[in-house]
Design brief:
The chain has 6 helices and 2 strands; from the N terminus they run ββαααααα. With about 120 residues, it is mostly helical.
Length: about 120
Amino acid sequence: MSINYKFNQYRISGEQTEAWSPMAYRLISKNSASEHINGFKVGHILYQHHVKGLAAKEIRKTPVGYGLSTNLIKSVLKGFGSQSGIESKEAYEIAMYMLECEPETLEKMYRLTIIK
């Protein structure tokens, strides 16, 4: 089902969707120079590591880790190196803030993820 973000409701049924915090919207709006990683994936990787307790090799086997190298996942967990862009570092900082102050919002964002 698609969402009409202007009115925060589903397009077909018209029912209201769950609202996320402003920090969550900032996180998902971050795009990095890499075509494989964005703010949503950065947050998801950090969520799986810090909340679910998965290691980099385990994250690689989940849907969010599909197509990502273990080294890229490890660099996300370490806060990115000097080669990453400003957007990646901002996404990391926002996700870490949300892990500390808004874990329930991250739970809303990533609760539909299936981890085997």
